[in-house]
Amino acid sequence: MSTQSSVTDVAPEPLSPQLVVRTTLLGTVLDDDPAALLALLPRTAPLAWVRRGDGLVAWGEVARVETTGPGRFADAEAVWASLRSRAVVRDDVKVPGTGPVAFGSFAFDDGSDQRSVLVVPRVVVGRRGSTAWITTITTTQTSAGSAPTLAPVPTLAHVLDDVDPVTSPGAVTYSRGAVADDDWTASVEEAVRRIRDGRLDKVVMARDVEARTEHPIDPRWLLTRLATAYTGCWTFSIDGMVGATPELLVRSEKGLVTSRVLAGTIRRTGGEEADLARAAKLAHSSKDLEEHEYAVASVAEALAPYCQSLNVPETPFVLHLPNVLHLASDVTGVLCTSGTPVAGNLTSTTSTASAAAPVVGGHGVAPSSLSLAAALHPTAAVCGTPTAVANDLIRELEGMDRARYAGPVGWVGGDGDGEWGIALRSASLDPEDDRAARLFAGCGVVAASDPASELAETEAKLEPMRLALSTTPLP
Ligand SMILES: C=C(O[C@H]1C=CC=C(C(=O)O)[C@@H]1O)C(=O)O
């Protein structure tokens, strides 16, 4: 399988662009509206990673890496490592997300010919509680002897492109995706058979749905609705991949890692009492607990070699989203730095994984958040157990290319810290047709799965994107 990568500078520049980065505090106070940051975005190629009003929005492009194949993460990481190591940075704020930042969205499957991307934006606006900032990034060429000059202190007024009004997509029609419903349930039935035969324990089967809109899709319409309705999720937009994921693959911040693992789902009814009864049912469902256990184990196993201590909860909690309830576990750990373990300030209450510190890139430094995302992907929340057998079964039975659905999506900073979600509850906007999008949803299949119920579960998981595309007032 081939691995290709390319770096494109927007204004053609010599081969060795150097980033010149300036971060300054934003004088303006951004309000608590979950969509306040999103209101700054231009219509074209908006970049976003926001949750409860905090996060990053960005636009413009000073560098882009496109990769495919099994080396897609390593190739993107290598380019980012080179860019960040040579960047000239003045950061007056110094919180996660300030300084140099790249946004990425990666294909699910090693075998996909669909691109993975890492984009370095021209402008980033970020917010973390009461702190808000602007970062501007430009490129200069590395030429011997001359030191790049820093741009003047940016202000919001200087960096805001013309923000044209957000427009509605109008009426939407849906049609089947790659596989008809009956064929999809037949595939789930076959997957259940293979599991009962003992060939694997779990596989996640997904499907897609095509949406066609009356008017061109303005990604900001989708983002604003997602961020407002799904406040507990991470609303993202990167190179046409848009969604609001409840699942955090990994956050790496100052030596601490966190992963929110989800697997096991029940639809909500809308009634508070009935939902509480459903939450109790979910928390005791052996089928869902089994699905969840595989997902947690896959994350713990993947993180263990990088951590000097890992806290893996024994029992999941129930996460309430507007459309569904999920079994959820927050796995946390303290990263090792090669040869120099970080002083442990997290206690392992339930289980501890300790392992020799890995040699990461041979530089004696902790792995970047992007390397961690690559090591974790694909977890059993989106692939299955054992991973390779499940992945082969997905290729054999699913009948579609997931492209960037269920792949890592997020951002990485200049120090390697960052946040990566799993691109769920998402759609890919067609770059050739601005009125077309492909929506995705999947579900974990175990021995006790019922194909018709799994189809219904995918419908519940499609709800956030259907709501995002609609014009009905938000609840
Ligand atoms: C694969 C998806 O969800 C995963 C995350 C949470 C719960 C899941 C489940 O219960 O099957 C899935 O593992 C999706 O939303 O497309």
From TrEMBL:
Domain called Chorismate-utilising enzyme C-terminal: residue spans: 182-342, 368-461
Family annotation (InterPro entries): ADC_synthase, Chorismate_C
Gene3D superfamilies, sorted: Anthranilate synthase (3.60.120.10)
Coiled coil: none
SUPFAM superfamilies associated with the record: ADC synthase
Highest rank taxon of the organism: Bacteria
Protein name: Isochorismate synthase family protein
Organism this protein belongs to: Sanguibacter keddieii (strain ATCC 51767 / DSM 10542 / NCFB 3025 / ST-74)
Taxonomic lineage of the native organism: Bacteria, Bacillati, Actinomycetota, Actinomycetes, Micrococcales
